[in-house]
UniProtKB/TrEMBL annotation:
It comes from the Bacteria. This is DegV family protein. It comes from Ligilactobacillus agilis. Gene3D superfamilies: 3.30.1180.10.
Length: 110
C-alpha cells in the first residue's frame, strides 16, 4: 500500500490558476498595490507545486478564458496526454466546468 501511494505521489502534479492574489497580499507575499492592479487588469496567476513541493509561478493571463487556455497549455508542456485529471475549485463551479469542457474537447477519453 505504501509503495502504491508513493508511486502516485511521485506521478501527481498540482497546477492552479488564481483569479485573485488578494490573499497573497494580505499574507505579505505580494505587494498590495500589485494585487490591486492585477485585480483591476483581470490578471490571473498560473502556477504549480514543483518537484520540491514549492509553489512556483508559471505564467499569467489576462482574463479567465485566456487563463484556462494557458492552464491547458501548461499541462501539455508538463507531459499531460489525456491521463487521469482532477479539477477542483473554490467557489467557482462554473469555471471548473468550463475548464472540464476545454479539456474534454481536446482529450475526449480523459
Amino acid at each position: 500500500m505504501v509503495t502504491r501511494t508513493q508511486k502516485f505521489i511521485n506521478r501527481a502534479k498540482i497546477f492552479f490558476g488564481l483569479q485573485s492574489i488578494t490573499n497573497l497580499a494580505n499574507n505579505g507575499r505580494v505587494n498590495k498595490t500589485v494585487a490591486k492592479l492585477a485585480q483591476v487588469l483581470k490578471i490571473n496567476v498560473l502556477g504549480w507545486a514543483n518537484e520540491a513541493g514549492e509553489i512556483e509561478q508559471l505564467g499569467k493571463a489576462r482574463g479567465v478564458k485566456k487563463a484556462r487556455q494557458n492552464l491547458l497549455a501548461l499541462l501539455e508542456k508538463h507531459n499531460f496526454d489525456g491521463q487521469k485529471l482532477v479539477i477542483d475549485h473554490v467557489d467557482n463551479q462554473v469555471g471548473a466546468e468550463a475548464l472540464k469542457e476545454l479539456v474534454l474537447k481536446k482529450y475526449p477519453a480523459c
